Amino acid sequence: MFRNDGPLSDRPAQKLRKYTPAGFSWGSSGSGARLLAVALLLDVVGKDEAWSHYVAFTFQVVSTWPWDGPWEMSEADVLRWVGMQHRRENGRKEVMASSVR
User: Fold this and answer.
1) Got the DSSP string for 24-90?
2) Does pTM top 0.90 for this prediction?
3) Which of 45, 56, 60, 64 sits most deeply, having the most CB atoms within 10 A of its CB?
4) What is residue 8's three-state secondary structure?
């Protein structure tokens, strides 16, 4: 797993919560895929955002990558996905607020 400036480390993600000692995986929604989701999100958007979105990121993004093939995700791709999540959350809040009135 590489970033532009070197390998992506699983250490920051492992500090937040112990996942698998086997490291990163993709193409599934297991602990290695969750570890990768947290590591990617931490690297781009920080701890709070990573913690808020890693489950959805695992299922919607990481689990869809072919386990036996190459994949690529840029920082811009991660930011776009997080922005989309924010828009969805804000839309839900607006719907809930209008139904309470």
Assistant:
1) ---SS-SHHHHHHHHHHHHHHH-HHHHHHHHHHHHHHTGGGS-TTS-----HHHHHHHHHHHHHHHH
2) no
3) 45
4) coil
Paired tokens of 80 = 């776009």
Retrieve residue 38's tokens.
Answer: 């947290």
Q: What is the 3-state secondary structure (H, E, C) of 18-34?
A: CCCCCCCCCCCCCHHHH
Beta bridge partners of residue 66, listed in sequence order: none
pLDDT in tens, the chain (101 residues): 556 666 666 666 666 666 666 778 899 999 899 999 998 999 899 988 999 999 999 999 999 999 888 888 899 999 999 999 999 888 765 555 555 55
The tokens describing 36, both together, are 């990768």
Continuous segment of H or E residues that includes residue 2: strand 2-3
Q: Is 76 helix (H, G, I), strand (E, B) or coil?
A: helix
